[in-house]
Every structure is written in C-alpha cells, then in structure tokens.
Amino acid sequence: MNKLTDYVLAIRTTGSPPVPDVAKTVDLVPGDGDTISSVIDGLRASGLTPADFRARVIFLAPEGISGLVPYAALCGFAGRRIDVYADGTVLEFSRLDRGEAFVDAGKPSEFLVWAQVGGPTAEGVLTVQLGPGEHGLVSPEAASVIRYAARLRMVPPDSARDALAMFVLVSALRRRADDRFPYLSTGTEPVPVSKEDPNQGVDLETVRREAARYRQEFRAARKGAEVVPPVPVSARNRRLAEANAVDIRELLQRLGSSPDERSLWRCPRPRRHRNGGENPSMKVFGDNRTRCHHCDPEKVGPVRLAVDALDITPDEAANFILNSDRVINMCAA
User: Fold this and answer.
1) Is 218 helix (H, G, I), strand (E, B) or coil?
2) 101 found inside a domain
C-alpha cells in the first residue's frame, strides 16, 4: 500500500485537504461557465503538462462527489488512471485491472440506449446496483447492463472514496480501447429522449475526451519546436541505453521468470502479489518493454524492471543486465 510520501506531485482542487508530505502540489481550480468547459479551463490554467505525469502523481479529492469531474479531466489528460487520496486513504487506481475479469451475462436481448447504475430506481431507465464494499460487487446481470448500454448514468454514493471507487469500476467495465466514462447523474433527470440527450447530468466521457484533446496540443506544439544542437550523451547514459537494448525476455529469464502457453510471464516482483506472482501477469511488447497488469501503470524497460525487481539503483541495474557476475557479487556484499 502506497503512502502520500511515495508521490512526487499532488494535484488539488477546490475543497481538497492540505497535504504537507508531498514534494510538489498543483491546483486545478475550475473556471467560470458550464461544468465541462470550466474544468478544462482550470486544467489549462494549472500549468500541468503531460511530462508531469511521468512522475508519481496523486489527486487529492475533496469531500463528497465534487472531485469526480476534475478527476475525469486528469485521467483524460494523463491518458491513464491516476491514484487518489480520499477520506484519509490512498486509492491505487493506477494498478487496478481493466475490467475484463468481471463476468457478464452476455449482451442484452434488446439494444440499451440508456441505463443507470446506483441511486433509486429511475422511471423509464433500466437501473442496476453495485454491491457493498470498496470496489463494489458486480453481478453478471449488472455487468452486462453497465458494459453494453450505449449511454450510462451513474449515481454515486455520498463519500468521496466510495464515489471514486464506483466511478473507476464502472469505467473499467465499460472499457473498449480506453476506460469509457459514464454520465454523472443525480438519478432525478427526466427520461432520456435521445442517445445524445444533454439533460442527463455531466458527461464525464466528454470531459475525458476534451482533456485528451488538450494533451494533443502539446504534441502538435512539439512538432514545430526549434532544432537545437545535440548535447553529447554521457558515458553513464550510454551504458543505461545499452542495458535497455538487451532483450527483456532474457532479463525476465535471469530474474527467474518464464512464459506460459499464452506468452504471459510471471512477474519477478512476487512480494507485490497476494499469491506470490504464481499467475502469469506480464506481457512483452514489440518495443522491448513489458508490463505487469498488477504492478505497472505503464510499460517498463529492462533497466526499470531490474530496479524494481532487485531493489537497486539504475546504475546497478545496468551492471546487472550487462555484467551479471559483477552485480550478483555486489548485491551479495
């Protein structure tokens, strides 16, 4: 379980608790106007860049459900889920499964234009519930409704922790290429009149897409960047690059891992897994990086994997990858 001191950057919004233990904080304060445009304006004014999310980032949620909209914007801008501090607890959403593990009852017999999860039963809208617990228990029938409804209203519980946990679970269940966000609803909106009915609450998927579009502006700006003379690469960085070029499958084998018939590898960090990493959970990608769906919020290369698995520095990891005898003796000492 992570602690606040494990994070480099904390992002606050209106009503967020003070956090003295994080190295740096940034405020995302929504501006004027409608809910969606105001939170995107606040994101622009915050000064955050995509590079900030290469570090360990956490969102400090205010009480209640008011943090859901800025959190949706941050996930869209980061291109992934980020962890949250809510009601005194660190919620490691970046390491949760994608939602495929939840079994559903199959596609509904009739196409669902609208449905609702949570809250009292809504007149004219098929309504399902999640069970109690931090992440909620999902019946196969409820999973089918959440997963296959074209549009989904979500009525969250009152506490910040439970509301955010529900949001992440529902979004993961609806995942296609990315998590697919629901509408933030009170459950009292009128019966929808069309698939694009704007009167059903706050469309958190639109928030995500607008924030992702803002992220694309940074990529477009980089294309026109001024060309500067190259800086000589240090001997240390050349060695790290050489280590990162080693076939990561060879490194996995040296760390005691092996692939199964599906080409999934056992994670060499068993201490992070409840079952000691017995179930293969790592996929090797064509860019010579790998990712454990439990441990890694993003793909990692050989050096970073060795750092995590052996609890050593990047320089020691490069030595291990390029000269195993030297590092084994060094680690033993």
Assistant:
1) helix
2) no
Contact assessment for residue 22 and residue 8, using Cβ atoms and an 8 Å cutoff: yes
How far is the C-alpha of 209 from the C-alpha of 77, rounded, in Å?
8
pTM: 0.67
Specify whether 239 is located in the same domain as 313: yes
For 36-65, the pLDDT digits (tens) are 999 999 999 999 999 999 889 999 999 999
Residue type, 214: Y
* 215 occurs within a structural domain: no
> Which residues, including other chains, have CB under 8 Å from residue 79's CB and lie 6 or more apart?
50, 53, 212, 215
> Do the bridges between strand 57-60 and strand 9-12 make them parallel or antiparallel, or are there none, so unpaired?
parallel
What is the number of alpha carbons within 13 Å of residue 267 lying toward its C-beta? 21
Residue 223 lies in a domain: no
Please state the domain count of the chain.
Answer: 3
CA 3 to chain centre: 17
193 and 122 both lie in a single domain: yes
Q: What are the strands, taking DSSP E only, across the chain?
A: 9-12, 24-27, 57-60, 83-86, 89-91, 114-117, 126-128, 151-154, 183-184, 202-203, 264-265, 282-284, 290-292
Burial state string for 62-89 with b = 16 or more CB within 10 A and e = fewer than 16 = beebbbbbbbbbbbbbbebbbbbbbeee
**Residue 217 is assigned to a structural domain of this protein:** no
Tokens of residue 155, six digits:
């009525």
Residues 88 and 126 in one domain: no
Amino acid at 70: P
Contact between 91 and 226 (Cβ < 8 Å): no
- Residue 211 in this model has a pLDDT that exceeds 80: yes
CA distance 83 to 218: 23
Domain that holds residue 287: 235-332
Please tell me whether residues 14 and 52 are part of one structural domain.
Answer: yes
Residue 331 pLDDT exceeds 50: no
Identify whether residues 188 and 240 lie together within a single domain.
no
